[in-house]
Specification:
binds magnesium ion; 6-stranded antiparallel beta sheet; binds adenosine monophosphate; globular
Amino acid sequence: MTLHFDNSFARLPDAFYTRIAPTPVADPGIIAVNDDLAALLGLDRDWLHSDAATAVFAGNSLPDTAAPLAQLYGGHQFGNWSGQLGDGRAILLGEIVGTDGIRRDVQLKGSGLTPYSRGGDGRAWLGPVLREYIASEAMHAMGVPTTRALAAVTTGEDVFRDTMLPGAILTRVARSHIRVGTFQMHAARQDTDALRTLTDYTIARHYPDADGPAGLLDAAVATQAQLIAQWMGLGFIHGVMNTDNCSLAGETIDYGPCAFMDDYDPQKVFSSIDRMGRYAYANQPGIAIWNLAQLATALIPLMPDQDAAVTDFTDRVNRFPDLYQDAWVGVFGAKLGLADPTLADADLIQRLLTLMADAGADFTATFARLTQGEKLPDLPGFDAWHTDWQARRAPDYLAIMAGANPTVIPRNHQVQAVIDAAVAGDLAPFHTLLGVVTDPYAPLDDARAPYALPPEPSQIVRQTFCGT
Ligand code: AMP
Ligand code: MG
């Protein structure tokens, strides 16, 4: 029993992709397979743990139902139109309809050259593969829509990134890999037929109730508003919210220089390449609007009256702030155990965040401590805020908070330690951290407590790097 694919994207016209198989690697070695996700995909457990599966995850063997291809897309990177990008180091093997009835892509990331590799080598190294595995599975465990990790393998080959590093491949699972940049590419080519086909396909796959391009735009606006609010609630900074990294399925995609904040600072930026701070924590909702405006622009050619569509689509994108504000109040209202949070609670929430920012308080630990029923005498201004908070709390506020505030998130210094150990040949720290962060709401016991600690000054990670 192997993977059984049904490939709807590969049945689209070839304007959307180039058929290409993964490039085999020298010596595949298994790092991890995801039993829970495999079960959701209906995969056989014995097969999953077999050498035959490792060979598939390495790109050395192709199931007969696979239809491997690299997807075409373009995108704005850091606000500038980059033109054609595409899967330069990723190959879609095919799609699987899971036991939940949901169709998902199974993609190898780091699987060799494609026509879209441009100057790159089509490969990935161990560090970003482990980072994406941990971060995406932690996000999933915390209820955030995200691509997931089915498997990670080593290749037995080195890749060169300033220095020689061990190569690795991630098997990424996503509801689809359709991006804002996919629409932009076909709009830029003025290929209205392709644009219409892509729109119909995306609606059928993700939003069957959506009515045409306007309905698709509404759905994208709503899912992005919800997604970004959830990121904000975890102190998550995506780091590279380019339009090619904005998924129409509303999933978090492309864990490159992403990071969860330690001390709360709304202007926080980790990515080494984000010199202007475009993708700082507090900028994320505004950037989502910017990306959605690019989607709207790409969809305009499909509309019979384009002038009217510009006005109409602008209005639809401008619904984002209200949707986002509602979602944000919902997210933070749950983090504070508020009774039926409404917009009227935004001020209470924001006042706590301001105290945290002023004090440089640890984001995750602050909410985790409140969830333990602790008062925070070390947070200047806490007492006055606490009085107002008490007045708004639900009777079972601690239970609500326990389900909304992780005790442990993948902290940068822990992820870095895992990567360092793995490069030195020890994968045990990776598996331990993965276990801890995929059970995010469990109380802190002796085993988990060290992972909840903010970094010591010497451990602080100030910069993160792209997954290239
Ligand atoms: P990202 O920054 O990961 O969103 O990637 C942006 C673009 O660069 C995409 O088209 C990727 O496929 C491409 N890319 C990133 N890394 C590589 C690589 N090692 N080889 C080829 N293409 C790459
Ligand atoms: Mg990308």
